Amino acid sequence: MKKKIKSFLALSSGAAFIFSLFVAFTSPQEPWEVPAKYKTMENEYPGEDVDGIGEELYKKHCRSCHGKEGYGDGNKAAELETEMRDLTLEEVLEQTDGELYYKSFIGRDEMPNFEKKIGDEEDRWMVINYIRTLE
Q1: Domain of 89: which CATH number?
Q2: Comparison of pLDDT for 10 and 16, the residue scoring more
Q3: Residue 52 to residue 62: CA distance in whole angstroms
Q4: Count of domains in the chain?
Q5: Interatomic CA distance for residues 105 and 6, integer angstroms
Q6: What is the CB neighbour count within 10 angstroms for residue 132?
Q7: Range of the domain at 39
Q8: Other CB atoms closer than 10 Å to residue 79's CB: what's the count?
Q9: Cα-flanking dihedrals φ and ψ of residue 47, to 5°?
Q10: Of 23, 60, 75, 132, which is most buried with the most CB atoms under 10 A?
Q11: Pick from 4-13, 41-50, 90-99: least confident
Q12: What value does the mean pLDDT of the chain take?
C-alpha cells in the first residue's frame, strides 16, 4: 500500500511539474508599448560593437537572464515569472534599433532599467550592436 501511495505522489508531482512548465512556456507576454520617439530613434553609432564594449556590457548585465548566446537560457531566467526572450529570434532582430534600445535600457516589469548602470550613450548603442550579432 505504501508503494502505491509513493508511486501516486511521484506521478502527481511529475505531472504538476510538467504542467507548470507548459504554463510557463506558453503564457503569452503582453506586447511592449514602445513610445513613437523610440521607434524612430536612430542609432548614433550603427554597425560594429567597437572594441567589444557591447559584448562586455552584455556579459555583465544581460547574460545572467538572456544567456551566453542570447537564447533566453541564462541561469537567472528560470527564477523569473516573465518568459525570457530569445534575442536571436527574427521577431526580435526585425525591430528597429530604437525599439531594442527602449526595451533594453528603459525596461518594464522584471526587465530592469539600465539607464544608470550603463550611463554612457555610446556604450548603450554598442550593446544594441552586439545583440544584433547574436545567432
Answers
A1: 1.10.760
A2: 10
A3: 15
A4: 1
A5: 49
A6: 19
A7: 35-131
A8: 10
A9: 110, -125
A10: 132
A11: 4-13
A12: 85
What is the distance between the alpha carbons of residues 94 and 3, in angstroms, rounded to a whole number? 54
Q: How far is residue 6's CA from residue 1's CA, in Å, rounded to a whole number?
A: 9
The answer to the question of residue 54 being in a domain is yes
CA distances from 38 to 59, 80, 83, 99 (A): 24, 26, 23, 6
pTM of the model: 0.76
Asked whether residue 102 is assigned to any structural domain, the reply reads yes
Q: Calculate the alpha carbon distances from 91 to 8, 59, 88, 95 in Å.
A: 42, 22, 9, 7
Reported as a single tens digit per residue, the pLDDT across 82-135 is 889 999 999 999 999 999 999 999 999 999 999 999 999 999 999 999 999 998
Q: Is residue 22 part of a domain?
A: no
pLDDT at 17 over 60: no
Q: Does residue 124 form part of some domain? A: yes
